[in-house]
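seq:
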Amino acid sequence: PFWKRWYLNGHMNLARDSNWQTKYPDSRLLMEPVEELRLEAALELEGPWANVRAGDVQSALGPNDLTLYERNAFGLHGALFTDDAQLDLVGARAKGEVFYQTPTDSLGIRADGTAGPYRLAHSPIVRGSETVYIEVRDRFDPTIVRERTPQTRLIDYTVDYARGVVTFQEPIASETFDDHHVYIAIQYSYDSRESGYERYLAAGRGETTVLDRATVGMTYATEIDDAGSWEGGDERPMPLRHHAYGADLDVTVVDGTSVRGAYARSDTGQWGKAARNEAVTLGFDSHTFERLRLHGDYKRFENAFEPISNNFLVGQKDKERWDVGLELDVSAAVGAHASQRVSRDLRAASDGRQLRDRSHIAGTELRGRTGVPDFRGEVEIRDRYDENDRNRLDDRRTTTRWELADDYARFDWAARYENEQFDQRGGEGGAEETIHRFKISPRADLGAGFAWAAEAKSELTKDRVRGLYREHRAHYRTELEFRAEKRLSALGAWEGSRTVDLEREAFGFGGGTPREHAYGYSVGANWRPFRRWETTARYENQRTRDDMLAVIRNESETYRHELFFVPHRDLEFHGEFVFTDLEDVRKIGVTGAGSRRRDREYLFDVNYNYDETVSLTTGFHFHERNIFDPFATETWVRRVFAGVNAHFLQSLEGTAELQYAWLDGEPIDHPDGLSSIENQRLRYLFELALDIRTRGRLALGYEGVDYEEPSTADAANDFMADRAYLKLITRF
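struct:
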């Protein structure tokens, strides 16, 4: 029957607004989260063959790079499905502008060996809209992603949505053992409601499985701006008209061998009339034979191809790439591998050059017996040349690698030597260089709860034309971890690099003229000295110095300390102190203002459970901010809050929350000679919930916000907003 198969879960908001506006305490620095000022609604209906969600929807349609569609929006998402097929339809209005902060442009965020903070290009960020990856990018071509690791909020990182700042839970290394660079890649939506068009979205995807061996899917998505909704100034951009559509196929030919492909098109302006707007991907993987593994990928992205929402394709336009390779186990002790990677421009650049980047790789592996290190040898030849004039070779790098590695019970290590011959020909300077690289990476379980890892790399660059060693670069990293059952855990990491100009004939690592050095380190611990006490602390420091000019280019320092005290199972005290001192425009978090920022935050709260029926909480938060631009401007935020949750009867529960915050100080920009700013915000919430046996819950609530700016004449920016809402969660 219907009532035994369907599940309804959602909430609906009925609101009465008085002069509703989106206002922030400081137009140049957001001191508090803005999501408190949003009225949201969601209603979801689930069944054995259909799902419907109305309100705030988070859609992720399609598994393939070209036909993936991801959006956080306000609208409707419906799905019909069987065991072998599924159909999804989405219609919504956008929540903020979607932006992908890619490593291929000036906004790319390069890891610096610390946990952060790392600043995004926009703020405030729409809550929950971010998708965070740690990406390893090719050291020669940053558009090539070598490795991508997704991150989870609160487990791997935290985010300040108001200021657009991401901080990780552990330090992020700046480069890998293979010298590839590490970036933080983030796709997110930022708040743009005060200007711009209202943007509407529509998308659909159908997918089916055929004979348990093939999956076929089609995706269509469009974004359209309402031309009459512009709220900005006179310089009005053209309203967006964007369509993208495509199909994908994944087939298991035989057991262990699969083939995949996708084709997509995009149009801006008039639907179906754009040119050079196609993209194609093909690929296969095979391990049907026990000792042989094959793989291949082909990708082509035309210049006018514009995916609506796909962070995998940023920086890939006007490119054609293919990558094929094999791995062969000759015997249990001998292995071999070979591959070819090619990337080429589809069109000539403005200087008439059309570049092709081609790599040939071949190597072997000898697996040693117990007590004998494994050996790995590899040769890579990488050419980069102009396809319109193949005699003009832009550069050639021939890299030879020899590596030894072994793994003992508690200790493993790897040591590598690389010889890289670099030639630059065809009237492009005539430089010929040889680079010697020495690398070692040991790891050890030291016992008694200690674990240690390190990495050291040193390279010498020789100018073969002049016969001089001209540069020495060193990079090193070490990490020490300690765990003592449930009482203490600690982690320390340190990373540094140093570049020295040599200009000498002799081979050697010492001497020379320092050019630049950088370091970053992080130390943190969690300690429970007594059963009722727990404390957590972490310190971060990063600095880059130009030794030629004898100046510090950027520097950052962060310290965080938390303390928990539980004198009784029903009583908990919590305190937190955060200090940051940033002299790095990449991390300050205030667009276009300030060469230095210093923050101090204090938080204290108490939680108490009384008689198993009443829970109480109260506390305060103090935040002091200083911006130096070049003169100091100071701003203070003070916030007090209290809340109560009570169970009156077995099935009746009440909740009340009260929060009051006030800000005063000096704004970063001084409009019309105003040299001070002051505002207050009062937020309150009351909710009464009734449990209907085991079938669900019914809740009725009232919430409001009152905002005032005494420093503004005629109270022009004051506003109030309130709402009454009804929640229903039940099972039929």
